[in-house]
Design goal:
With about 210 residues, the protein is α+β, with helices and mostly antiparallel strands. The chain has nine helices and five strands, in the order ααββαβαααααββα.
Length: about 210
Amino acid sequence: MGKRTKVAAIAMLLAGAAAMALWLWDPVRPGLMAAQPDDLVLGDPNAPVRIVAYVAPSCLACGAFHREVVPRLKAEWLDPRRAVLVYRNAPSSDTDLVVSKFLRCIAPSSRPDQSLAWLEVAFQTQATWLAASDPVQGLQRAGRELGRSNFDRLCLDHPVVEENVMRARDAAADAGVRTMPAIFVQGRKVSPADLDRTLAKVASAQR
């Protein structure tokens, strides 16, 4: 190993140690670990490691996280039941608010599988429906292959739906969510870039 390669390797180790030290220093938020009514759960809820991700439908970085990172998480952590991923909605714009209400109207909380299916549609077709003059209509068109094209627009104005979406927004703010995706591992915040390293360290510590 050449001198330059050794220096690069040491720098990587130091960066990883620094990131882990910052993660351990960050206070645990016990409330984040508890199940919430609107949680969308991918994986075994009883898995030893809990990942909570606050996302919003129109958040481009959230869409990229779902398309590029979640498949790897699923293969390496969720399917083997080493970790569970919990999605929580954190609407931060007018578009997020109306689309979040749409998702509630077309996928009731009693059917989390439908909610996950529609969230998948929202992130996979994000560029298409965000460019539509009416995001709800754009998303509805994108999801027709799921056979769920019937939708009552009056539901969007239902006070209970509005209240639930606002509650989700406030809960995200109370959790300290400022940018998204906001990812927490075992109740501590972690940057998306450090997620794999943090999961590996946590899993190793649990052995």
